[in-house]
Each structure stands twice: as structure tokens, then as C-alpha cells.
């Protein structure tokens, strides 16, 4: 059944509308609801709060983003690679800092001792990065009565 064959026949048009609703529209909305079901507004807010660090220094943005997205995994990664904080090189010890940075960089190279942990941290960040789009889709579904729920946080787009 299609629109052309239904013509102006209201019964056929109603049947066509029902068919489209059940075979196209509702499955699409169900996919949308499934996509946003793991939305975490607190994680979304934490990630939004890391963006200011990008203006200060890229490495600070990444550090704070990883802390927000994968706190336990990122802590384990840092503990595996970095010396205890009381053994860190002094802020003016350029050579000592460079040595630590080179060791850390080498550890995440292919086959490096912390490659797996680094990939786990980054994978968690990538998954967490879906929160803003999930917020937008979830909010639209709720705002239009397609999904039940409450919009607690809309992200940086809030007015």
C-alpha cells in the first residue's frame, strides 16, 4: 500500500498511516530510546566542566576529561606510570620532567607496558563523549512526549 494507490480513500490512507507508524516510525523511536537509555547527566555535566581547560592548555583538558570519564581506570594508569607524587621532579627540573614524559610516552606506544590501560581510558572517554548528543536526543524525545522522563541537564546549551 502506498500513497498513490490510497488516493483520496480515507480508509486506505488511515491504513497506510498505521502501517508507516508501526513499521517505520515506532521502530525508529524505539532505537532512539535505546540509544539514550544509558544517558548519565552527571557525567555529561562533568565533561562539560572540563572544556574550560582546553582554553588554558590542551593537556589539562585531556587530564580533566579522563578524570571525569574514567576516574578509576585513569588513576590506575597514572599510578602505574608516574612516580609517587613526593618523588616528582621539581617544577624547574626540566631534564627530570622530560625523562618522566618520555617514559610515559614510550609506555603507550605499540607494545608499551601501559598501552592497554591507555586504550581503556581513551575508550571510556569516547563512550562518555556521546553524552551531549544523547542529552539532545533524550530531551527532544521527552519534550515531544515520545519518551517519559525528566530533563535534569541540557548541557552547555542551557539558557
Please explain how this structure is put together:
With 159 residues, the protein is mainly alpha-helical. 68% of the residues lie in helices and 0% in strands. The chain has helices at 3-6, 10-36, 41-48, 52-56, 58-69, 71-81, 94-107, 115-128, 131-143. It is elongated, with a radius of gyration of 24 Å. The model has no long low-confidence stretch (mean pLDDT 92).
List the helices and strands and how they pair.
Blueprint: H1 3-6, H2 10-36, H3 41-48, H4 52-56, H5 58-69, H6 71-81, H7 94-107, H8 115-128, H9 131-143
Highlighted features:
mainly alpha, 68% helix, single chain, 159 residues, elongated, 0% strand
Largest sheet geometry: none
The helix-strand sequence is HHHHHHHHH
| pLDDT < 50 runs, ≥5 residues | none
Shape: elongated
Average pLDDT across residues? 92
Gap between N and C termini: 46 Å
State the helix count: 9
What is the SS-derived class? mainly alpha
Cα radius of gyration in angstroms: 24 Å
Beta-strand percentage? under 5%
Number of strands: 0
Helix content: 55-70%
Amino acid at each position: 500500500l502506498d500513497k498513490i494507490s490510497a488516493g483520496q480513500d480515507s480508509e486506505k490512507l488511515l491504513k497506510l498511516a498505521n502501517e508507516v507508524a508501526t513499521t517505520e516510525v515506532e521502530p525508529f523511536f524505539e532505537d532512539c530510546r535505546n540509544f539514550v537509555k544509558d544517558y548519565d547527566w552527571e557525567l555529561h555535566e562533568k565533561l562539560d566542566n572540563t572544556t574550560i581547560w582546553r582554553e588554558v592548555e590542551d593537556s589539562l583538558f585531556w587530564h580533566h576529561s579522563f578524570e571525569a570519564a574514567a576516574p578509576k581506570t585513569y588513576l590506575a594508569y597514572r599510578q602505574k606510570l608516574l612516580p609517587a607524587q613526593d618523588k616528582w621532579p621539581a617544577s624547574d627540573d626540566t631534564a627530570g620532567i622530560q625523562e618522566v614524559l618520555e617514559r610515559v610516552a614510550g609506555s603507550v606506544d605499540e607494545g608499551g607496558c601501559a598501552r592497554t590501560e591507555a586504550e581503556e581510558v581513551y575508550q571510556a572517554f569516547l563512550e562518555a563523549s556521546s553524552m551531549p548528543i544523547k542529552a539532545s536526543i533524550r530531551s527532544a524525545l521527552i519534550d515531544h512526549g515520545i519518551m517519559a522522563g525528566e530533563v535534569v541537564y541540557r548541557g552547555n546549551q542551557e539558557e
